[in-house]
Amino acid sequence: MEPFAYVRATSIQEATEAYASHPGARYIGGGTNLVDLMKHGVETPATLIDLTRLPLHDFQELPTGGLRVGACVSNTDLAVHPLVRTRYPVLSQALLAGASGQLRNVATVGGNLLQRTRCPYFQDVSKPCNKRQPGAGCAARDGLHRDHAVLGHSAHCIATHPSDMAVALAALDAEIELHDGEHGTRRVAAADFHRLPGDHPDQDTVIRPGEIVTAVLLPPLAPGAVSLYRKARDRASYAFALASVAAVLRLDDRRVRHVALAFGGLAHRPWRAATAEEHLTGAVPTDDAVGEAVDAELAAARPLRDNAFKVDLARNLARDVLATLARSAPGGAAPTGRRP
Amino acid sequence: MPTPPDGPSALGSPARRSEGHAKVTGAARYAAEHTPPDCAYAWPVPATIVRGRVTSVDIAAATAAPGVIGVLTPYDAPRLGTADDPTLHLLQDLSVPHRGWYVALAVADTPEGARAAAARVRVTYETDPHDVTLSADHPGVYTPAEANGGHPAHRRQGDPDAAFAAAPVRIDRAYAVPPLHNHPMEPHSATAAWDAERHHLTVHDSSQGAGAVRAALAALLNLAEEDITVVSEHVGGGFGSKGTPRPHVVLAAMASRHYGRPVKLALPRAHLPATVGHRAPTLHRIRLGARTDGTLTSLTHEVTTHTSRVREFVEQAAVPARIMYAVPDMRTTHRVVALDVPTPSWMRAPGEAPGMYALESAMDELADALGVDPIELRIRNEPRTEPDSGHPFSSRHLVECLREGAERFGWARCREPRRDGPYLIGSGVAAATYPVLVMPSTARAHARSDGRYLVEVNATDIGTGARTVLAQVAADALRVPLDRVTVAIGHTGLPAAPLAGGSSGTASWGWAVHDACTALTARLERHHGALPPGGLTASADTTQSAKQKSPYSRHAFGAHFAEVRVDTITGEVRVRRMLGVFAAGRILNPLTARSQFTGGMVMGIGMALTEHSTMDPQFGDFTESDLAAYHVPAHADVPAIEAHWIDEHDKHLNPMGSKGIGEIGIVGTAAAVANAFHHATGCRLRELPLTPDRVLAALGSAGP
């Protein structure tokens, strides 16, 4: 790898100032993805600014009942936190379905959000890739793309975002807190944090140069809301999702009061299934109703030569996850509180 | 002869690995963990075209960086002598026979510096059209002179076509196995130190055979073998990919001699698929003809595979069909096409692993067509003598393996597939076989005056437990407790011995160790009084005995049983339990043997379910080139695995009575899993691995 400078920041201000004064700098958290990319020559930062000493390691219960998670919290610590396990099981499940124990111990929340696609052409500098080098072309489109996107891809890029955690965050209506030295703090909905590739596949997210992910904010879930993550993969552990589903469901008198459904492994970002949610809201989540809603969502799918199976897989997963949640949600099959 | 069973036998006891403590504490040194003073580091530059020629190599940017010692290119690299293996003729000419072929070598003070320098080497090429795609009807397909292992490419008995046409029950199926990669845990690495004053090259290499490495380096570097020492003391797996000298050791030695400094070269994982061999993809067509009672009347196994344009290697996948079943009319054929691909090579059970996947899948299909239990079908076709050669078997206990396995697995209780919610559960069986191979070896045994014994043989322990088992062989022949014996292996200064390959190591080395220790015992018996200060020594050379052609057909056999769970929602297939029973002669150490069997079975799970490699038609490389993309089974993929063996006494093998056990564990495993998948779902997938995309498509086409 190319030589690079290393700066260890101990405050957010120090980090953003270091970024401003070091052209070609990149922030680094756990480094589980960035260091690999540096070894492959995909990333060649002149300076690494280490954020892991920043005071962003805390969990904070919010007055609203939500939870604020510092961006430097490890994936492991987030997955096993008692409040996460009890209030946001979908998030804990998603984290534990990702990577390996060793990687989760090192990987941070912020870094997880900012990891790059594992498209083999993106990771190989000897092959064209619009994400790595805009205008170079996309080798995956006519190449090997079984693992690539079926939703929201563009002529320029068919990559998927690899994070499991981000899919759960999208379904939880989480917010990403960002900070830069100039404008201070802003928040972006997790579902809007990652982009579709469009004309600029080199931009994975809406983060601005120099901005730091400082926290993830988990809103309180209404009483009775249940959640679940399910992932399909080529091997039982340590494999990226062929497709995954994160869902949150709350029923009231057997009807869907709130549903949030997000797909992983299908698109350049976690795919929040707004169409399906709209279909289901207010409906009784029978198998047919769920099936119709999911089909309506996946009607937008544009599979490539070798990945049409992902549409079936996503449909199966979503139907299974929603049916499972509908059975376990209070106010479901056995109506409560209405009998005299 | 073996020590009588009532004697104080070390053989057969579950002795723990003698180097186990050193390995788990990190004290054991592997090839890349030797760092001579002033050691430099090398990083090779792979070609980024599929076929053509180098037209220029610009090293200015690479060598401008501080700490870069130099860059060797095809224009200026030292000229090499000739080796048998053309994949070792590195940086000798400008041609590029496949993507990933090395076109330069950067050498620097640090590994990071070498890597950065390699990335800065600018190579230009002239490209030719390429072809990397294998198909059974490829116009370039030809029948080779022979398949790997010296097996005839083509064998025919009787008239299999007429017998097939006349058969009342017929199976005619195509199966496909993708390219597979050895991916040992320790990537290939070497540390080479050329001492100009002593005119001596010392190499620590990650190899399955230090002797073969020394011979290749001598030929390539125009040195005498005595000018070279190769050490392979600890090796982190090889699975065949370290069975022949590989480019890394040649480049390290070349650079060390050229720059006058020790040079270390550890290949990055992503280079392995293109440079250390792979299991070539195989396309199988199998035709089975049978009478309605299940008696086979015709068997044809045709294999089409690829090789590179550098060297012909033909995966001998139709060979196991020649010994498995009693069929009067049989044809087995290998065809190959040379493509612009990396050179395939040995991978655990070359030939048997893919061949028995296809054959044992077809047998399952035949059992299904006949409505006969698949175990019963195999028993009905058990041959009295080897079908191909007509020779009697030295021992053959396949039927016993099938029966004992059925009993232990509870086969009779799981003949009905089950449904458990969204899961379909089924079970399958397949037979396994692997030939008995033995190669000449020498060994030396030394009795020290302090009552201890030193046994020396240039064997290699690639993680199998060979060092430990050889001590057991020695202890028995010496009739002393195991803890009095020290074994020295993995060094060309030791008595010459063959490589660890073909499941032949223990038989080959053990035979020589046995003979040396037996001779030493005789010397000790004749010796009266205290031993001289220098002790006593005896040597052995098994060239005569090991080369003697056996009148017997000698093979190990086994039976695999697998129960799988198919998730109809996701298409995920997971093995719930797996059991193997093997007949492999005398088991010399149940602890290390079980590890060999189950290790092979885990690799078989990978072959069946997860390990997928794709030759990219445009770029000419294997796309899944790291362990995140090439899915070897993770712990979560591996259920409780049982390996058992039957007590097999075979007098026609070697003094220990052992057959090789390193490879048979992967033979037939994938068929057992695939057959279980069929049992569970009613769908037959004839291409490995059984990944969710294929499974969902199959389940979908079969209806909900």
UniProtKB/TrEMBL annotation, chain A:
Domain spans labelled FAD-binding PCMH-type: 1-223
The entry's keywords: Oxidoreductase
Pfam families attached to this UniProt entry: CO_deh_flav_C (PF03450), FAD_binding_5 (PF00941)
TM annotation in the entry: none
InterPro entries: CO_DH_flav_C, CO_DH_flav_C_dom_sf, Diverse_Substr_Oxidored, FAD-bd_PCMH, FAD-bd_PCMH-like_sf, FAD-bd_PCMH_sub1, FAD-bd_PCMH_sub2, Mopterin_DH_FAD-bd
PROSITE patterns in UniProt: FAD_PCMH
Superkingdom assignment: Bacteria
Protein name: Molybdopterin dehydrogenase
Organism encoding this protein: Streptomyces amritsarensis
TrEMBL record, chain B:
Transmembrane segments: none
Skewed-composition ranges (Polar residues): 539-551
InterPro entries xref list: Ald_Oxase/Xan_DH_a/b, Ald_Oxase/Xan_DH_a/b_sf, Ald_Oxase/xanthine_DH-like, AldOxase/xan_DH_MoCoBD1, AldOxase/xan_DH_MoCoBD2, AldOxase/xan_DH_Mopterin-bd_sf
Keywords: Molybdenum, Oxidoreductase
Span of domain Aldehyde oxidase/xanthine dehydrogenase a/b hammerhead: 25-129
Oxidoreductase is among the record's keywords: yes
Source species: Streptomyces amritsarensis
Region: Disordered, residue numbers: 1-29, 528-552
Domain of life assignment: Bacteria
SUPFAM superfamilies: CO dehydrogenase molybdoprotein N-domain-like, Molybdenum cofactor-binding domain
Protein name from the UniProt record: Xanthine dehydrogenase
